[in-house]
Amino acid sequence: MLIGDDVPARYTEANPWGGEVMRRLDDGWCAALDRNSMRCTIYGRRPDICRDFEMGASDCVAERTLFYSRPA
Hints:
Elements: E1 12-14, E2 20-22, E3 33-34, E4 39-40, H1 48-52, H2 58-69
Antiparallel strand pairs: 1-2, 3-4
């Protein structure tokens, strides 16, 4: 589990340096992300780094724009 977070273990993995990180699927997106709604499926248990990424802020809007403008 990510230190100080309550993330279910199935959504985490060890990085090459031994740290715990959110697992990403083959498409590169977080394993906890619902691809249909683009919402976090563990919102109440999301890690601190995600809590710091304010929904609707410029970084969030930029990421969503990149996702929705990718070719299918």
